[in-house]
Amino acid sequence: MISRHDWIVPDWPAPPGVRSLITTRNGGVSTGMHESLNFGLRANDDPVAVAANRAILRAHLPQEPVWLKQVHGARVVRADEVIGEPEADAAYTRQTGIVCTVMIADCLPILLCDANATVVGVAHAGWRGLSSDVLENTIAAMNVPAHELLAYLGPAIGADAFEVGTEVRDAFIASDAAACDAFSPVREGKWLADLFLLARQRLARHGIHRIYGGGLCTLRDAARFYSYRRDKTTGRMAATIWLAPAG
Description:
The chain is of the alpha+beta class. It is built from 6 helices and 12 strands. The strands form 3 sheets. It has a 6-stranded mixed sheet with strand order 2-3-6-5-7-11. A 3-stranded antiparallel sheet has the order 1-12-4, with no helix packed on it. A 3-stranded antiparallel sheet has the order 8-10-9. It is globular. It starts with 17 loop residues before the first strand and ends with a strand.
């Protein structure tokens, strides 16, 4: 088992009051295709193992993460108001100690905070969510001027690994012609899509230019990351962000 210390502490100039952590697949107790730190209850893993894995993560956080039932949609919830695991693909909060969380296994996690550490958010952005405005909805819910926001792009399926059909390309170009730069032809009707570039384009369109991270490919690095596209039966990692109490 590889140490949990290969988890990712985002390298970005977030203000001191903002904390964030992205797990890898390592440091847990799950076995087989889910080895080892799977948080997904809907990933066909042993629920006892998932609970133990969530407890491992909890020990590194101020409180239990706010888990979501993700559906590749565009709904955003206020993390400090939810009960249970709501159906949503993004969360935000202005309260300290509330851990906004999304699970990932190829889709792009996007962490957001403002320069004054008054609000944080996270979005689960696969191509469906991204094209359906989950990122825009999260930005709107955070309700601060765009020039005050910073973004961090976590690990996701890379631009040389994410093959999609023409319908995916069309969905993005319909709202932004510049999105064509994020697609490279493979063969008739098939394209390689750059989720990182698509996210950067959308952030920039909304006035967010302080963008960090990006480039870590979940599919190519099987030792470190889960990948649904690569393995089908696999676990889920977590991307978390929260506001730390003053002092």
